[in-house]
Amino acid sequence: MVATPVAAADKWVEGTDYDSVVTEMKASFSEKNGAGLDRIDQSDMQKICSASLMEGKPLSKEQFEKIASEAKASVKFPADGQFLGDWKSGEKIAQSGRGLQTSDKPGAAAGGNCYACHQMTKAEISFGNIGTPLLHYGKLRGNSKEIMEYTWERIYNSHAYVPCTVMPRFGDAGILTEAQMKDVMALLFDPTSPVNDDTVTP
User: Fold this and answer.
1) Which of 26, 85, 140, 201 has the largest count of CB atoms under 10 Å?
2) CA–CA distance, 21 with 17 (Å, rounded to integer)
3) Domains of the chain, start order
4) Model confidence, pTM
5) Closest CA to 189 of 138, 148, 116
């Protein structure tokens, strides 16, 4: 969770300082299914990013490097060394916005909701543009070890490259499993996936 004010302000409005807000939120919510109160507790990274937004100031060089280096260190590559799973499962994950919600059934798998921010296929016309287009991702970049590792890092914890990004930390935050991330990787890299072949129907 990163606090995002409507507009940058010089100081917190009385009664809305960090500790007061956290206390009020914990008193107002209760844990249910996939939504736990631990979501209210901010990491050091989230506190830095919230302060930057609230104060309307960019990160300092030291803050930028701290967040990026710690995020990169958090990344765990696949235990078996294999980056790709099944693109068809990856498409379902990219389409699904479920996960970490009170309405989720206990134990239900979370989705990635990738289309909310990225264009990925020609077939899907409902997509967001907060993130960069991923259409033809593997076709344009190839599948070298370097690009595979880079892409895995971006999915696992994108703060390694863009500190304070709005992209979820799918691996670091435990949103997606290793197997699910492999499936999303396959969607991005498999030449027969709809991301790379416009003639394929998801």
Assistant:
1) 85
2) 6
3) 18-58 (no CATH), 87-189 (1.10.760.10)
4) 0.87
5) 138
